[in-house]
Amino acid sequence: MRNNREEQREDLKKRLIDAAEARIAAGGLNGLKARDVTADAGCALGALYTAFEDLDRLILHVNSRTLARLGAALQAAVPVGQGPKEVMAALAQAYVSFALQNFRLWAALFTHRLPEGIEAPDWHRAEHAVLIANIIAPLAELRPDLPPQALQQRARTVFAAVHGVVMLALTARFVATPRDQLPGEVAALVEAMTRGLAD
Amino acid sequence: MRNNREEQREDLKKRLIDAAEARIAAGGLNGLKARDVTADAGCALGALYTAFEDLDRLILHVNSRTLARLGAALQAAVPVGQGPKEVMAALAQAYVSFALQNFRLWAALFTHRLPEGIEAPDWHRAEHAVLIANIIAPLAELRPDLPPQALQQRARTVFAAVHGVVMLALTARFVATPRDQLPGEVAALVEAMTRGLAD
DNA sequence: AGATAATAATGAACACCGTTCACGAAATAA
DNA sequence: TTATTTCGTGAACGGTGTTCATTATTATCT
Q1: Alpha helix ranges (H) inside B28-102
Q2: Selected residues 145-184 of chain A with any CB under 8 Å from a CB in chain B
């Protein structure tokens, strides 16, 4: 045998991530149980802890996949040959669409919490850049006066504002925006923000 | 003895809420354990379930208190004899301050989730009105064209946008706004929103 | 190829959690 | 006081994530 060792290890990891992803998509983060995942993946309970440090690290890898898909969706939504306001509006609507169509996996990105005092690894933190990557260019057109660092910070704020509206609409049981009004409200928010930012 | 029955019952409830509130403030929602709370409250483990349906309902009462304090803080922050933009700015900064000074209890308002399929009681849902109560008046000045219902909805959106920025800044381990920049970014967001909403 | 060493998978056991429930204590009613 | 209803008690239950001695598998060496 050649590198069977490594291959089997990677295969087990993949099966576990697949199973966890399916379980989260079906039943949410709270519905994810170590025994279910390992049963679905066709391995023993203890095998999970030979492949990953713990269940939280496995969830991290599921979130990693979701971020990649979300990043691709946002990237694909950027219209060509349009002004910054149109780009921002399109990005916001793409974000809404992704959250609606991948609700539980998207929610897992923001509701999952590591145990207190434990930080996510750098490679995973870096993956979150896709959330603001496409906002920076149109924002720079609206605010050419801002230096790169302030621009990056403002992009985070713009994302967080849109995200907040989507999050409260989809997960809160109070002050909730009805789903059918969500695209319209997000559009109004982005419109107001871009107009206010314009000059 | 007169109404000792009712009195003792209410006293037990209060002690449990006090203990849970202190535990959440000290260790967050995840650090809240039934055994700790009942030990702090000076009662047996099972007593919790004579006073409340379950641990989630106890948390609900803690959140109820937090909402009342937050509502009072927002109310007190409304400046008199100022324009709508100044009112919105003041409310946003008051929200930031409350979140910073009551971080874990504030976070519990939005991270606590009831079991799937179980809804919070109406009396508790109604308490969340304080989050948008003070936004409606200044917003109505900025947008006198909007009918009351749309105004209420837009107020939810404005709140959610500000809340999203604060939430990601304080709880996310990625795309995080540094805390010292949070007031400035929120101010910029509200400024942009109110300018964009103005006409 | 066969023997040996290193490694990984197994699943029963562990520690801890929220919740329940038979029992005894206490407060009300008779 | 006595009877009755109500409530607090804490051991026990079911379910959780995680560990660990044991077994099975793979790689290494002669």
Answers
A1: 34-41, 48-51, 55-77, 84-101
A2: 153-154, 156-165, 167-169, 172-177, 181
What's the one-letter identity of residue A129?
A
Q: What band does A8 get if pLDDT is binned at 50, 70 and 90? A: confident
Q: Which of B93, B101, B169 is nearest to B134 (CA)?
A: B93
> Does residue A137 register a pLDDT over 60?
yes
Residue B98: half-sphere exposure toward Cβ, Cα within 13 Å: 24
Query: Does B160 contact A174 at a Cβ distance shorter than 8 Å?
Result: no
User: Above pLDDT 70, what percent of chain B?
Assistant: 98
User: CA A10 – C1' C6 distance (Å)?
Assistant: 19
- Supply A50's token pair: 């030979």
Tell me if A191 and B196 make a contact (CB, 8 A cut-off). yes
End-to-end CA distance of chain A: 66
Q: Is residue A170 exposed (0-12), middle (13-18) or buried (19+ Cβ within 10 Å)?
A: middle
Residues 6+ apart with CB under 8 A from A167: A110, B160, B164, B167
Contacts of B191 (CB under 8 A, 6+ apart): A196, B85, B89
Q: Half-sphere exposure of residue B142, counting CA atoms within 13 Å on the CB side?
A: 26
Q: What is the distance between the alpha carbons of residues B196 and A195, in angstroms, rounded to a whole number?
A: 5
Q: How confident is the model at residue B173 (pLDDT cuts 50, 70, 90)?
A: confident
Mean pLDDT computed over A121-131? 96
Q: Å between A44 CA and D22 C1'?
A: 14
Three-class secondary structure of residue B184 per DSSP: helix
Query: In chain B, which residues from 118 to 177 place their CB closer than 7 Å to nucleic acid strand C?
Result: none
Q: How far apart are CA A71 and CA B62, in angstroms?
A: 38
pLDDT of residue A117: 84
A160–B160 CB contact, under 8 Å: no
pLDDT over 60 (residue A191):
yes
Average pLDDT for A36-44: 97
Most confident of A161-175, A176-190, B57-71, B115-129: B57-71
Q: pTM of the entire structure?
A: 0.94
Residue B111 CB burial class (10 angstroms; 0-12, 13-18, ≥19): middle
